[in-house]
Amino acid sequence: MAHAHTHTPAHRTEQTNSEAVKPVSKRVAPAPAPRRARTWRLLTPWLFLLAPLALLITFTYAPIANMVAYSFTDWDGVSPELHYTGAENYTEIFTREDLFQVFWVSGYYLVASVIQIVAALYFATILSFSIRFRNFFKGVLFFPSLVNGVAIGFVFLYFFQDGGTFDTVLGLFGYHTDHAWLGTPASANVSLAGVSIWRYLGMNFVLFLGAIQSIPGELYEAAELDGAGRWHQFRYIILPGIKPVLTLTVILSVSGSLSAFEIPYIMTGGATGTETFVIQTVKLAFQFNKTGLASAAAVVLLLIILLVTWVQRRLVPDDRVDLV
Amino acid sequence: MNRRTVTILATVAGAALLLPGCTGTGGSTKGADAKAPDDPAEVSGTITVLTVRTDLVQDGTMKKYAAEFNKTYPKVKVEFQALTNYEAEIKIRMNTDDYGDVLLIPAVIKKDDYPKFFASLGTAAERGKKYRFTDFTTVDGKVYGQSPVGVMPGFVYNKRVWKEAGVTEWPTTPAEFLADLEAIKTKTDAIPYYTNFAAQWPLTSWTYVDGSVHCDPQATTKLAEDDPWAENSDLRVGDTLLYDIVKQGLAEKDPTTSNWEESKPRTAKGEIATQWLGTWAIIQFQDAAKKAGVNPDDIGFMPFPAQTDGTFCATVGPDYNQAVNVHSPHKEAARAWIDWFTDKSGYDQDNLAISPLKDAAMPEVLKPYEQAGVKLIELDDAAGAKVKLIDDESEVGIYKPEYRQDLVDLARGAKKGSLDDFLGGLGKKWTETQANVSD
Questions:
Q1: Domains along the sequence of chain A with CATH
Q2: How far off is chain A from B418, nearest CA to CA, in Å?
Q3: What is the ipTM, given to two decimal places?
Q4: Among positive and negative, which fits the CA dihedral B329, B62, B201, B209?
Q5: Mutate which of B9, B23, B428 to test chain A, going by most A C-beta atoms within 10 A?
Q6: pTM for this prediction
Q7: In B, which residues are within 8 Å of A288 by CB distance?
Q8: Are residues B127 and B226 both part of a single domain?
Q9: Fewer CB atoms inside 10 A, N or C side of chain B?
Q10: How many CB atoms lie within 10 A of CB A9?
Q11: Chain A residues touching residue B397 (CB < 8 angstroms)
């Protein structure tokens, strides 16, 4: 119990309980309160919850319920008439091959998110040790997350333009390319996935940094005394220490890759083989006025993401981490 | 997923099934009329006019029109709302009663539903005597909208560049047109043709070659009944020309990063030679020329390179149609605005556009058309609603940019396949849907 002094009171109760030592304070059953007080006690948490619950229901669950309801109709989005069509929209989604082909595009974003997580982890680890200009680099890495996604789309449109910033920068290194970056499906998707790494790296980085910094500093000291190098510190202290955050990030990245939208929508509008499932859904709803079918597609995407999350939680159970 | 999540999901799904379709705007007001006021001095009320012309609202031009309007109708107050993304924003507002007093009929509204959303402006027989384009908004003999300007598709081109390339006559066939673009490519520094691929919507104007290739006022009806990409049909001729332009390297090098706003001054300055747009674009390109300090008279306009019996043909159609909200409490005032804006505002002349009045003269910019004896036709729109329905149902999108983007990709080699297979596939989707769509 060398580190007993660092334990929070919560820890202590837990431990004492498990070790079956005499409880610190004897539990006394409270005297039955008068009925009115009891009602208030039951009601109080709900009163506090009233505002957030109202917001949550109005802006999350009611729209979802509506969307599910629309998915069983042939509504076009404006017409006063709509007909119940049963599971027809769902049948159409699962029988039309072209609707699912767009998921191949998600592959590019999946690969990108692997790169993104590794890079974010690398930077977060390095910047959690004391090095010069630490805060400056933290700012640099986090900055893209603060910029509006639409603005990023437009900026990178200029960046990838023929003779644009990217070509100029490559030219500075003596590499004169004549490549239309958004010109072919593969190159366009790689470029767009690159932009999305740039955009979301900062967010992952901050999450990792926060998790790493919550690991008690004396662990490193102890490890260093035992002769552990930077790699071993990373492998045996940092990695297990941030496992819950890492799992969360992986889940977020996978669902993010499946539902990639704003960057490809703004930059290419889904042209040249960059259409993602969400872009396709938006086009069904707002271009071809098939709100019913689009709602069904959205429900299917939601279910796919829930499924993927569930499988992931099964493969990587969320164990309690205990470094000490 | 733990048990609680399952419970929540089940609740949501259950609630969804219980929810009735709460989208109705009610049919009680169906078929209301917006009558023209008898006495202009008496009609009163504050009306909101929705428009897509953000530029005119911002620079105060719309206010000037309103002030002019108030000279005749002193008691009507006109307010403007400019929507940047009109189609998307209006679609959501149309689910309520609050979509302005005067609005532009959005493409999403089915023609049969017009009486549920808009007040009638009169019978087709009566309005047709004075105005063009009445059949585009006629349902059961009543007219629901009126466009303040007529538009005509065509090539906006830089006259100076074409002359430098040694071309003085308008090309009369697609092959000649391609040869002329080739001449521009070899003899000048200009990009012969600019697709505006990235802005997407400019590509949709290629659908409006329909009618001008074979000089057929029934072209829209043909779209509803036949394969639009059959051998030698209008759309096939148009799409093949676009394909060939890109295939032969006569378009911009990287279409995916093209820029619409930039393309205007570049065309004015002669860096770009040609674009397929419409008469509405002329004034914008001339303005761009003035801003760039070059001669606005260099901006020319030419018809599609096809002749029937030795003459060019061009179709004249309506722009957005103005209509009165059926729920508006000030229908007379709203009607007064539409009538005044169409007949007396001078909006058509200010935009160098074709007047919606049948007896009005052609704008000055179309002088070359008169000299060349271009025949102007108005397409019969009786089957227009059906065409739109087939278009949405089949997801082909002749009024949407996707298939032309695919066409350009195909021509550039960014997408595999042959033109014949591609157009054949579209035709197959289209004709298969035709059978399922009832009139």
A1: 101-275 (1.10.3720.10)
A2: 16
A3: 0.82
A4: positive
A5: B23
A6: 0.84
A7: 392-393, 395, 397, 400
A8: no
A9: C
A10: 8
A11: 287-288
